Each structure stands twice: as structure tokens, then as C-alpha cells.
């Protein structure tokens, strides 16, 4: 069963939350409501989110202050934030949003298709990162295990090719995503995140290649003294 990504919707007006849910329901992900900045921060203590849609104008803790708290926490600082606002005070207001850590800034009323497309990009990046973590965990377990167990033919001859094949699928998807973002003129933060993901994949690929039969011997010889 494919794990769904969580999307945090933060707005003090219930009708706005209903509208966001209607727009994003087509993505078939888990939508989590928060009616205030405080409620959003509480949800972020225990849940992992792919992206946050954050209303700027809220009573009490507004969107800018909420974003500042999110970016100060190590657990949540890398979660993309899309600001939503019903007003436009000009370039200074927009700059304040980006300075607070937003990856995008959308004025209401917004185009539902555009919003859905932007959110979809960050959901895809989140899922690719989860896949990468799973591959890295499998590889780490194999490395930490030292010599293969009794069923060595599966450990050496089965697990590494399986890891390589699964990694290749993630590499292909990441390459396609980066190409689509670049050609469509996506937000610079999204393009940068995709490029960072590809660099991580390259590092994992090099580590896997080094584990292939015959690949480790030259390295061990070079590391011998004299």
C-alpha cells in the first residue's frame, strides 16, 4: 500500500479550509486542517508534512510569525511553505513572505489548477525523498551487517541488484521531475530541492557501485600501507 503524503492547511476561516480541501482532494493525499498558527505548530510536533499552505491574515499569530516558528525548528525547517493571502500590499509584503521562508506566495482568489499543480510538485518531491530514505536504510543495514548471512546468495547476489533496480527507478523519476520543473519555469526553491535530491541519489549510486562484486578490491588495495 502506497503511503500518502500529508498536506497541512492553515486558515482561521472554515470556508477557506473547505475550499482548499475541495481543490486538493484530487491529489488523493492526506489533508490536515489547522485553524490557527498555534494549532499548526502543535500538528507539526508529531506529524511529517510534504507542504504547508499557510494563510497570512490570521488573528493572534499571523502567517509570518507562524512561518518564523516553523523555520526555527530543526524538525520542520525544510518543509515547503506556500503563503496564501487575500490582500496585496505590494512588493514589500511579498518580500516579507519570502523572507519568512515561503517557497511561493499566492494571492486570493487563486486559480485552483495552478494551486493544485504547485502543491503536486512538492508532494512529488516529498515522496521521492521518502523513497530515497528507504533505499538508504536498506543499504545501511546491508553495510552494518558486515559479511552476508547464511543465505549468502540472497545477501550478495540478490539484495544489491534489487537495491540497484529500485534506485534506478527513483533516479529516473527524479530526472523527469527536474526536467519538468526546469522546462515549466518552476519556482527556484522547487528546482533547487529537486537538484539536491538528484545529488543525494548520485551519492547513493556511487556507494552501491562500490559494493558490487569486484568493485571493493581495488579500493582496499589502494588503502593498504606501502
Would you give an account of this structure?
Pfam families: Response_reg (PF00072). Keywords: Phosphoprotein. This is Response regulator. The chain has 226 residues and is α/β, with parallel strands linked by helices. Helix content is 59%, strand content 11%. It has eight helices and five strands, in the order E-H-E-H-E-H-E-H-E-H-H-H-H. The chain has helices at 14-24, 37-44, 63-72, 91-99, 112-144, 152-183, 188-211, 216-222, and strands spanning 6-10, 30-34, 51-55, 81-85, 104-107. It has a five-stranded parallel β-sheet, sandwiched between helices. Strand 1 (6-10), helix 1 and strand 2 (30-34) form a beta-alpha-beta unit. The longest helix has 33 residues, at 112-144. The protein starts with 5 loop residues before the first strand and ends with a helix. Residues 147-156 and 216-226 have low confidence and may be disordered.
Brief digest:
InterPro entries: Bact_response_regulator, CheY-like_superfamily, Sig_transdc_resp-reg_receiver. With 226 residues, the chain is of the alpha/beta class.
Write the layout of secondary structure elements.
Blueprint: E1 6-10, H1 14-24, E2 30-34, H2 37-44, E3 51-55, H3 63-72, E4 81-85, H4 91-99, E5 104-107, H5 112-144, H6 152-183, H7 188-211, H8 216-222
Parallel strand pairs: 1-2, 1-3, 3-4, 4-5
Helix pairs in contact: 2-3, 5-6, 5-7, 6-7
